[in-house]
Amino acid sequence: MTGVSYWLNSTGDPPLAPSPPVNADVVVLGAGIAGITTAYLLKQAGLTVTVIEAGDRLAAGVTGHTTAKVTSQHGAIYSSLTSRFGQDTARAYGAGQQLAIDWIETEAAAIGADADWSRRDSYAYAERPSSVEGLRREAGAAADAGLPASFTTETGLPFDVAGAVRFTNQAQFHPRKWLLELATRIPGDGGTIVTGIRALGLTEGDPCVVVTTAGPVRARHVVVATHYPIFDRGLYFARLEPRRDLVVAGYPAAAGPDGMYISTEDRHSVRTAPAGDGRSLLLAGGEPHRVGARTSVARHYDALRTWARERLSLDEPAYRWLAHDLTTVDALPYVGGFHRRTRNVWVATGFGHWGMTNGTLAGTLLRDLITGVENPLAGVLDPQRLTVRQSATEFVKANAYVATRFVGDRVDALAARRGAESVPAGRGRIVTDGPRAIAAYRDDDGALHCVSARCTHLGCLVVFNDAERTWDCPCHASRFDTDGRVLAGPAVRPLSPADPPD
Ligand SMILES: Cc1cc2nc3c(=O)[nH]c(=O)nc-3n(C[C@H](O)[C@H](O)[C@H](O)COP(=O)(O)OP(=O)(O)OC[C@H]3O[C@@H](n4cnc5c(N)ncnc54)[C@H](O)[C@@H]3O)c2cc1C
Ligand code: FES
């Protein structure tokens, strides 16, 4: 079983001329679905655009590790939005998602893109009878919000459910095939994409100056589409919650179900994808947990494999992967001005595990905001909206957790007083050198790799991920490889080198 996602394994990379980032009307940081879609649309609108991507491959962050259902059904969000903010907000949110689906389909047809696009019904299901009332409420709220929703007990899944909400005529696709089609149309005529270059800092002004690992680049507008915003202004680190999901995928003997599925009880997720060789790939997702939780990620994979075998007859997965997404304190994404005083720095984040539509929607909204076109979603998704302040309970809960980990993990590490000899081959542990906490990993050949355990974002102690062999930060989900290199932000700098303790 490979640890590379199917989307990354089944696609190559477009030839990009190696070039430094160049000054432009707009600099877009991050080449996931939000960044690539925004850049593509801004170029279409006649602006010069430079996309700066830290990784070596495009659409290889969370977007390369998604399940890529393109649907306005986001769990049971419409009953929650209606009761918290009223039907107008639920309607506006739902209409935006449906528009995103239609835009991808229309644009793909217009440019002749082949992205395995396929219209399907989507189901949010529950197995416990006690959950049925909630599903009926969700079906009603979604239908009232103008969406193609109804309650059903027929899903096509190979196991019984107590009930489900069905959204008809939704879609699925291959996210990387789609985004590479868009990305290859960005370079030229004032458009540039660079990979392997990390944004490190930003000085706001007119123009703004982005500091990158390849030098400064200037732009009238900067779009921060780095998944977790990398700049510590606007308090994003205090109002986004990272949650990870795992995926296994393979080729079961019998064809998988026709629809797209998500459990409202345990978040198990199911869809199929054409593998290009006549076979159909079955994807099963689940085992949600907070990044850096005190838990074994390898055991979560075992549990997901068991579930996929027992429920879907997927005996031997060919792929496994994981990623985390970010949820805002009021469950609506943040798309708009980066902070209260800015007029030319923009952000798109907090897609709540539904970034295929929300990331696309973010592109259309940011294009309109930057080019001065009115958009009905500007107020609903404004990162400074009033509802963010109304969600004080969620805000306090998220930050209490971070505070506990910031202090508690240090106390635990110092109390354990572990030395490097306690680290077995293939494992990582936090060991101590006097008052210093060191992230020590012993590779399969017995060599020790030591780096500071202090996350370079805001200083929480990293935790070893025993399935991926990475160091993950429990506070805001930065990830580092065992030599300290950044794999995922908000951190932009590697973990400091450290000597093994004596
Ligand atoms: C397991 C899983 C399943 C999911 N399934 C679905 C689904 O079925 N349907 C759905 O709608 N959504 C789904 N989602 C959510 C969706 O995948 C995400 O919301 C979406 O991909 C996020 O896109 P993004 O562009 O914001 O982030 P990313 O794709 O992570 O892009 C951000 C980019 O910024 C780059 N970057 C970071 N820091 C820097 C820096 N300092 N300088 C330059 N570049 C930088 C990163 O390398 C990355 O390429 C799922 C998520 C997960 C985890
Ligand atoms: S990601 Fe914020 S402290 Fe590590």
Can you offer a commentary on this structure?
It is a single chain. The chain is of the alpha+beta class. Among the domains are: 8-66 and 177-238 and 339-390, 3-Layer(bba) Sandwich (FAD/NAD(P)-binding domain); 394-488, Rieske [2Fe-2S] iron-sulphur domain (Rieske Iron-sulfur Protein, 3-layer Sandwich). Helix content is 28%, strand content 28%. The chain contains eleven helices and 24 strands. It has helices at residues 6-9, 33-44, 77-85, 87-111, 132-144, 175-183, 297-312, 355-371, 378-381, 386-390, 392-416; strands spanning 24-29, 49-52, 69-70, 118-126, 149-152, 163-172, 191-194, 199-203, 208-212, 215-224, 240-250, 260-263, 269-274, 280-290, 319-328, 334-337, 345-349, 428-433, 436-442, 448-452, 463-465, 470-472, 479-480, 486-488. The two termini are 38 Å apart.
The structural class is alpha+beta
Helix coverage percent: 25-40%
Low-confidence stretches: none
Please outline the major beta sheet: 9 strands, mixed
Oligomer: single chain
Tally of contiguous helical segments: 11
Could you report the average pLDDT, rounded to the nearest whole number? 93
Q: According to CATH, what is the class of one domain?
A: Alpha Beta
Q: Please provide the count of β strands.
A: 24
Rg for CA atoms:
22 Å
- What shape does the CA trace take? globular
Distance between the termini: 38 Å
Name the CATH architecture of one domain.
Answer: 3-Layer(bba) Sandwich
Spell out the key features of this protein.
single chain, 502 residues, alpha+beta, FAD/NAD(P)-binding domain, Rieske Iron-sulfur Protein, 9-stranded mixed beta sheet, 8-stranded mixed beta sheet, 24 strands, binds flavin-adenine dinucleotide, binds FE2/S2 (inorganic) cluster
